[in-house]
Amino acid sequence: QVSAALREGQITPTELCQRCLSLIKSTKFLNAYITVTEETALKQAEESEERFRRGQPLGVLDGIPVAVKDNFNTAGIETTCASNMLKGYISPYNATVVQKLLDQGAVLVGKTNLDEFAMGSGSTDGVFGPVRNPWSYSRQYKEKCAPKSHSEDKESKWVITGGSSGGSAAAVSSFTCFAAVGSDTGGSTRNPAAHCGVVGLKPTYGLISRHGLIPLVNSMDVPGILTRCVDDAAVVLGLLAGHDPKDSTTIQDKFKPFELPNLPDVSKLSIGIPKEYHAPGLASEILALWSKAADLFKKAGAKVIEVSLPHTRYSIVCYHVLCTAEVASNMARFDGLEYGHRSDTNQSTESMYAATRREGFNAVVRGRILSGNYFLLKQNYERYFVKAQQVRRLIAHDFSKVFGSGVDVLLTPTTLTDAAPYTEFIREDNRTRSAQDDILTQAANMAGLPAISVPAALSKRGLPVGLQFIGRSFQEKQLLTVAKWFEKQVEFPGIQLEEVKRHDHDVLQHQKSASFS
Amino acid sequence: QAVTVEVLDHLERLALVDFRDSEGVERLQKAIQFADQLHEVNTDGVEPMDSVLEDRCLYLRGDDVTEGNCTKELMKNAREKVEEYFVAPPGNIPLPKLEE
């Protein structure tokens, strides 16, 4: 809608950009952004406006404000990964996905906050502080949660966004941008999408280039897409997917961008319900939502069957080993010599490295590096690392067996509960939390399958809950068609942000249900 | 099994992250305990999986120089440098041993 508005001249790119920038300023308390690129954004908006004046917009995304997670390299803009190690690091190049967005004329409004080096499931462990879920300030949450508390109580009740792309999700959810790029290694795009009531797409591994994405687990990372509706996600996917000679893990098949049907039809599909996803700790209201969704599909004529993925509960353990092992290797590049933080210790190379890394990384990262090195020791290699790789094959095999038996798409919950209040979340350490929260999203990363989280309903506490669809490799079109059908059925309510409404009433009126497709 | 001091020392040297305090050791123990659950799974005869794209051929491009010459940009990010060299403190000096 916004794209059409830009084309018709109802609003100009610079106006749009300025509104988003002022909205970012008024929602600063959400801490969704690490860097707001005001000057470059306005310049890009002006260039876009010039193109519209000449009647030559570059495409659907021309002039649209977007945000990028801070573990993607952006030329000339500080890229920190929310870590002391990279504070002040100005990237010399653009990540491929960033370049593709800029080539389409998108306006980059800022880099969003995350867990340090994308490790975590709450966006609470970065050095710039935790990200607050915009729904904590929505009328829906306030009504259900604290109708008669005073303002200091309200301060402590804010909920987390989920992680690790929490900043991106919060940015899209609070209307400060129209689409955001995150990364997904264990659920890092879908988890915050579910908690913030936005659409979170994890594409098939190998579809979108990882060049420029600071890696966590090379065999499972993918750039993720966060938008307010499924159609937008399809549009962004169409622009970002495709082979990249700079990333040898992207497939060479030519990607054909697709448009989703206006009236998607699910009656000929087979929807699988994996019974192991009824994990311990799953909130009863989410379970009810899950069955209601299954019934919706049944009523529409789709075949809904229960399936089994027997190794689901080991995917978290497997992830733990593989992730820490890859992290130990990937974090080895941070030694302070070529870029990033460097300690003042100068007695020896090794002591300088050790001091730099101690100062630059937080406890979570250091813990993972240490565990990873342990699992990779010669005496442990077979028992842990190779074993985890074998379990990975079993998990991937589970999925291919299910898809091979005729199931088209799997329907599962995305998270076990709705967003937790920050004070509760931090009571357990990062690893425990990740193990709990990633349980439903992790397996799709193990097998490299595409998955999408679609907001489904509001919980008892007035917070969003999402449901996840997992599709076949490289069948994003089918996956997104199902997601779009579901989205239409559910009619998820828009967020009603009170405090922000006071300042920017007409911005919200204009953008409340705005999509750009 | 408990993590011995030798292993910890060895790990510190390999990982080059400081985690000498008891909290670090405890974390590691818990991580190992968690990972031990893997042994419940029977993986006889299963090939380890390196990548989900294993059925495809790796893309190789022609051996032509397509980019480079970015010395100036790259040197901007380094803190200690002399002309076009990165400066490191003296090497080959091992870390002090862990005493416990």
Polypeptide structure, described:
The complex is a heterodimer of chains A (517) and B (100). Chain A is an alpha/beta fold. Chain A has a domain at 1-145 and 157-266 and 410-490: Amidase signature (AS) domain (Amidase signature (AS) enzymes, Alpha-Beta Complex), CATH 3.90.1300.10. Helix content of chain A is 41%, strand content 12%. An eleven-stranded mixed beta sheet of chain A has the order 1-3-2-4-6-5-10-11-9-7-8, with helices on both faces. In chain A, α2 packs antiparallel against α3, α11 packs across α13 and α11 packs across α14 (381-404). Chain A starts with a helix and ends in a 6-residue tail after the last helix. Chain B has 100 residues and is mainly alpha-helical. Chain B has a domain at 1-40. Chain B contains three helices and two strands. Chain B has helices at residues 5-15, 22-35, 71-76; strands at 81-82, 85-86. A two-stranded antiparallel ribbon of chain B has the order 1-2. In chain B, a hairpin with a 2-residue loop joins β1 and β2. Chain B is flat and about 55 Å long. The model of chain B has no long low-confidence stretch (mean pLDDT 81). At the A-B interface, α11, α12, α13 and α14 of A face α1, α2 and α3 of B.
